[in-house]
């Protein structure tokens, strides 16, 4: 893996490990868009939640009486620890899907709030490959794309050189707390990039069966595996 890609991954891992508690407390409510996904998730399905954080999506599923076989994955060990405390009977693992294929197959793979943290197209397409490989026939991949407004977020792109990270069009270093100390990498996808992402899933024999906007700033994409 390219050194810069690893630097971005490490930056985001450090951010979430450092601020795990604060971040989790700031995001307690379920996303409104999740309600529109309930029709796709059956109680008997095997589901992987990539970028699961503190397990908030599992809480949502249980509150909606969906007791599926759930496994959560996240690069932040501190967020995983919070998830395990909240859901002691569930399976949670520290895991990097950019570098590794998941260890088993699933009927549904969700990636909420993940793809905007992936630092470049090569890493994104490798992630798509790793996800696609573990989806059962007729299974689903559900992802969200965060359409944040850089003018409303606290950006510190000036720090990229200090961190040894080259930023491209749409790349931002977003701050937490206004000090420029706790930064995370985020990429703002344009329409062409979203279309290319969809094409990559289609090349992997997936069909886009649903697309909608929700939560004010998220675009949801639901793909079904054809073979």
TrEMBL record:
Protein name in UniProt = Class I SAM-dependent methyltransferase
Which Pfam family, an example, fits this chain?
A: Methyltransf_23
Q: Name one GO molecular function term.
A: tRNA binding
Q: Which UniProt keywords apply?
A: Methyltransferase, Transferase
Q: Which residues form the signal peptide?
A: none
List the InterPro entries.
AlkB_tRNA_MeTrf/Diox, SAM-dependent_MTases_sf
GO process annotations (BP):
tRNA methylation; tRNA wobble uridine modification
Q: Which domain of life is it from?
A: Bacteria
Q: Which GO terms describe its cellular component?
A: cytoplasm
Naturally occurring in which organism (per UniProt): candidate division WWE3 bacterium
């Amino acid at each position: 893996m390219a050194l810069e890609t690893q630097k971005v991954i490490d930056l985001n891992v450090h951010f979430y490990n450092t601020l795990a508690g604060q971040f989790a407390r700031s995001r307690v409510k379920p996303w409104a868009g999740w309600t529109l996904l309930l029709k796709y998730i059956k109680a008997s399905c095997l589901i992987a939640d990539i970028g699961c954080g503190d397990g908030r999506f599992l809480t949502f599923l249980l509150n909606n009486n969906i007791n599926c076989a759930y496994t959560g994955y996240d690069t932040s060990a501190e967020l995983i620890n919070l998830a395990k405390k909240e859901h002691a009977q569930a399976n949670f693992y520290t895991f990097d899907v950019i570098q590794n294929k998941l260890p088993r197959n699933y009927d549904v793979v969700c990636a909420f709030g993940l793809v905007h943290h992936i630092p470049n197209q090569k890493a994104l397409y490798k992630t798509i490959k790793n996800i696609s490989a573990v989806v059962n026939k007729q299974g689903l991949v559900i992802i969200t794309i965060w359409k944040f407004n850089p003018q409303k977020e606290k950006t510190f792109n000036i720090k990229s050189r200090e961190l040894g990270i080259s930023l491209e069009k749409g790349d931002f270093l977003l701050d937490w707390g206004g000090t420029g100390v706790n930064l995370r990498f985020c990429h703002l996808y344009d329409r062409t990039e979203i279309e290319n992402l969809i094409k990559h899933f289609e090349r992997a024999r997936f069909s886009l069966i649903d697309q909608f906007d929700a939560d004010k700033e998220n675009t949801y994409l639901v793909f079904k595996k054809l073979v």
